[in-house]
Structure formats: C-alpha cells, structure tokens
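Hi V.,

You were right to ask for the full record rather than a summary. Here it is.
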Amino acid sequence: MLSAKSLFQEILDNDDSFRLFCSIAASGESQGGWENARIAALVPDSERDMAPKITRHGADEDKHGRIFNALLKKRGLEPVPVPPETDYTMLLEQRGIGLAHDKLKSDEQLTVQDIVTYLSHSRVTEQRASEQMDLLRKYFADHPDIGRAVKMISADEDNHLAYCHEELLSFAAQGHGRAIQRTLRECALSEIRIYRDVSLAVMAHMGRILGWPRPKAAVLAAGIHAVYAWERLAGWRRMVSLKMPERRDALGGPATSAPEFA
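Predicted structure:
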C-alpha cells in the first residue's frame, strides 16, 4: 500500500535516495542559518531586542544542517550536489519571497518593513516545516537511526512557528496589520507553487534512483498536484492566520545543542 510512511521508509532504506534527501535538507537548513545570521546583524536599531531571537533562529537552522550531515556520516555517506530544481530555499529567493540575498550581503541596516517581510516569509515557510516534521515524528519518532533527530528538529520548527506568530502579532498591534496580511498572502500563494514544483522534482529524482514503475510515479505526481489544488483553493489560508501561541517567547535563550549528532 502506498502511504507517506511506506514512501519515506523506501527512501530511508536506500543509501542513494537517503543521501539525496539528507543533502537537500542540509543545504536548505544551512541556507536558512546564513539568512537569519545576516538579518540579526542588520536588524534596525528600533528592533535590536529581536536580534538574539533571530540569531537563535539561525543557530537552530545551522544545527539542523549539521544533524542531516551527521546522519549521512553515520551511514558512511557523503553529501551530493543539490539539483537546482529541488532547491526550495533558492527558488523562494528567486521568486522574491523574503529578503533578497543582495540586501543581506550588504552592510546597510534593514528597515522595520524588512523585518515584517522576514517574519511573514518565515511564518509561511515554518508552517510547512512544522507540518513536514510533525509527519515524520508521527511515523519515525522511535526509529533507531533518525528518531532523535526527527524529534529535535520537529520541536525546533514548532518553536520557530510560535515565534513568528508572536512577533507578527506584536507588529500588527503597532499598526503593521495590513502590510502583514498582504505579505503573508503573497508569500503563501507563491510558496505553495514552489512547494509543488520542488515536490515533483524530488519525487522524479527519487523515482529514478529507486526504479519506480511509471504507474507508481504517476500516482505520486497526481497526489502532489491534488495537494496543490487544495492549497490553491483554500489550504493556503492556514499559512496566513495569526494567533497567540501557547508557548510564549519560544526563542528566548540560547539554541539547544545536538552533541550526539554533530
């Protein structure tokens, strides 16, 4: 029976597919770490109290990248180059979601609107990350090889999402509500298209590695298109709502380490 659990188990059991999966994940997390580090360095004076939280966000992302690379090393595998069509973070940046890398590479201080854009982008992408890791935690929390990594990363992604909700609500109370909602909607509608395209590309690569028959590949592609259709119709709305999280100040304090992985 074709299910999310059986699909990922198949990817996990094959060295080549597992290597591609971890390489893609590590690359995206490391890129997110760099972006957050630059944002923390350039945060405007009026929002300097946010810098430690942004730094913590970036440190978590760096840690996740190290964890995925450590999982590869544990199996005696080396990372592989990430195919451009599977590079989620690069494609987001190319589509103008979030802050442009040219801006982050400069030494010019960011504006408050830039911080609102960063938080809105993060709120959308962290929703996706939280949901994906929750799915992996559901099926693989007790897995002897990846269980600890899945639980740690999942908890971090939940904290990142809570942080985005709380900070955006604070900016909304300061009069940025309309800008936040506009940016969230634009980011969400773009993200669901990119996620569809990346999912199709990743599944195509996995299919070639694992030798999936054409009917199986077609069913998986149809499922990805069905998810996109639902998200385009209504599902994107879950990415733009804001509510005060149960856990407040989720990124207050230093990042947790992962010595058992990296």
